[in-house]
Specification:
- The complex is a heterodimer of chains A (116) and B (112).
- Chain A is built from no helices and eleven strands.
- Chain A is mainly β.
- In chain A, 34% of the residues are buried.
- The model of chain A has no long low-confidence stretch (mean pLDDT 93).
- In chain B, strands 2, 4, 5, 9, 10 and 11 form a six-stranded mixed β-sheet that branches. Chain B has a five-stranded antiparallel β-sheet with strand order 1-3-8-7-6, with no helix packed on it.
- Chain B is globular, with a radius of gyration of 13 Å.
- Chain B starts with a strand and ends with a strand.
- Classes of the chains: A mainly beta (116), B mainly beta (112).
- At the A-B interface, strand 5 and strand 10 of A face strand 4, strand 5, strand 9 and strand 10 of B.
Chain lengths: 116, 112
């Protein structure tokens, strides 16, 4: 198993550009989520999904869209990039959605995004 | 506002030393407390998920305890090794809502 994979590893964008951060997992996990990591702040939840076709907002959803058309993939779209979205983005998955916050999360390697 | 605090922020120890650090969280609506280990240039890896007051978990030289009534968890490392150098994160979940509130971590450096 590859686990949780993310592409790209690093991206530079100009303000106003759009892009999609890819996340895939091959563990048949129900739950998937996106976090951002900023200096001096803990991991913050952007969006999450409890299964194909079901998504919901996390703590900091503004400026981001997600969709979950398959169990495996959970892309994160930046609609119009802003310098405030410069961050490291982590995708994570958990086996089951039903047990909520008691599930171990498996993290991808991260995508470092710089918005100029 | 739910807040998770970890202390100390950073720690430098010598190889062979035992060490411990603290995660403080709200004592109301407790559902779960997670510990993760995060090495530089890698992604966080799960250590423990703790759910019951008085829980004690152990993995090799690393162990953790949980006090939900007073809102804290301790992580212990016995006989620290250089490969233990990492940031140790805790995350709190209240009320089964799938949203983890993360601390800033304790950065541990073990000198050979």
């Amino acid at each position: 198993n590859a686990g949780v994979t993310q592409t790209p590893k690093f991206q530079v964008l100009k303000t106003g550009q759009s892009m999609t951060l890819q996340c895939a997992q091959d563990m048949n996990h129900e739950y998937m989520s996106w976090y951002r990591q900023d200096p001096g702040m803990g991991l913050r939840l952007i969006h999450y999904s409890v299964g194909a076709g079901i998504t919901d907002q996390g703590e900091v959803p503004n400026g981001y869209n997600v969709s979950r058309s398959t169990t495996e993939d959970f892309p994160l779209r930046l609609l119009s990039a802003a310098p405030s979205q410069t961050s490291v983005y982590f995708c994570a998955s958990s086996p089951r959605a039903g047990t909520g916050g008691r599930e171990t999360q498996y993290f991808g390697p991260g995508t470092r995004l710089l918005v100029l | 506002i739910l807040n998770v605090e970890q202390s100390p922020q950073s720690l430098h120890v010598q190889e062979g030393d035992s060490t411990n650090f603290t995660c403080s969280f709200p004592s109301s609506n407790f559902y779960a407390l997670h510990w993760y280990r995060w090495e530089t240039a890698k992604s966080p890896e799960a250590l423990f998920v703790m759910t019951l007051n008085g829980d004690e978990k152990k993995k090799g030289r690393i162990s953790a305890t949980l006090n939900t009534k007073e809102g804290y968890s301790y992580l212990y490392i016995k006989g620290s090794q250089p490969e233990d150098s990492a940031t140790y994160l805790c995350a709190f979940n209240a009320g089964n809502n799938r949203k983890l509130i993360w601390g800033l971590g304790t950065s541990l450096a073990v000198n050979p």
